[in-house]
Structures are given as structure tokens and as C-alpha cells.
Predict the 3D structure of the following.
Amino acid sequence: MAKLNFRYGAMNCGKSDTMISAAYNYTENGLAVVTIMPELAMRKPGFTTSRAGKEWPVDIATNDETAIREEYHRFIGERLIHCVLVDEANFMTPEQIDDLEKIAKLDDTSVIAYGLRSDVQRRLFAGSQRLFELSDNIDKMITMCTCGRQAEYNGRFVNGGFHVGEPIVMIDNDQTSVRYQSMCANCYHDNSQSPGAITA
Ligand SMILES: [Zn+2]
């Protein structure tokens, strides 16, 4: 029976890079993959991109209204799919994560979902919560804080100032001055107490 897998980590832990490598490896071995990603998280329309400069086309771009399993069945038709790869799954709704679980269990196709555990206020994303509830396998991807400790949280800087207040979701692309940095609890608190920090 196929499994639902959740691989989570803080920003910049290499999630997209790992997913793109997986897509490449499956495809190179003649195995079909389908890639799914929320549109709002795309830095380049139609693609998942890694900070290391790799990119891979997204087959199904979603928004909150997308019925993922229906879209998936329409997209694959009669084809046999070996693995479904999902990037930025934290941004999906709980109902969409339920659909991913059905693809694993009812359609018997492995699903690997990558995503953040928590937002800039260190609260679970709704999609991540549902993935923690339903996944067969949960792997943590490790990344380091600039101080050398293990990073657990996502700090955010806007125009250079620490900003983890509303809005919770801001996309860091070339058009914005938003920068995310994975950090340990100590550095998160240090930055929260810095002059001008926005924390609510
Ligand atoms: Zn630190």
C-alpha cells in the first residue's frame, strides 16, 4: 500500500532542491511523477524553484478552491503514476491534504509532500497540521541557524527589519524586499527584542 510522506523543515533547508532531485531521479528511471504546488508560493509561474538554482515544471498549480484529487485524475487520464510530489504543502487546506491521503490510499500512489512546519509566529500551518495527523512517514529536514545551532523557526526581515507580524504570509521574490531566514529559538527571541521589531 502506498504511503503518504511528509518532509518538513524550516526555510532554506533544501526542500525544493530535494523534491526536484526526486523528480529528476524518478523521471530518469522511466517512472512517471506528477508535481503539485500552490500557485501563491511560486517564485516563477509554473515552476518549483530551489535556491540552488534548479527548477522543475509544476503539473498542477493549486489555489484554495482546487479539488486536488479530481484535478489529478483529470490530469493523469489512464497513465500509471509512480509518485506524486507536492511542494509548499503547508499552504494547502486540510481538505486538500485529505485528498493527498486518498491519492496514496485509494489510488495506491506514493505521495511525498514537502513543507514548512510553522509560520513566522511559530504556529502550525493548517496544511502541515493535517499532514502531521495523516502521514505514514514524517521526516525532519535539518538546517542550521547562522549562529551554528539547529534552526527550528522562520524569521522574516522586511526592508532589513525583523517582521514576524501580520500578514503571516509574504512571498519573497525579486519584486519584494522580504527575506526569510531560518533560525534557532535564541536568535528568534534576540531579533524579536531588537529595536523596531514587529512581532504582532
Ligand atoms: Zn541562532
In short: The chain has a mean pLDDT of 96. The first helix runs from residue 15 to 28. The chain has two domains: 4-140, 153-192.
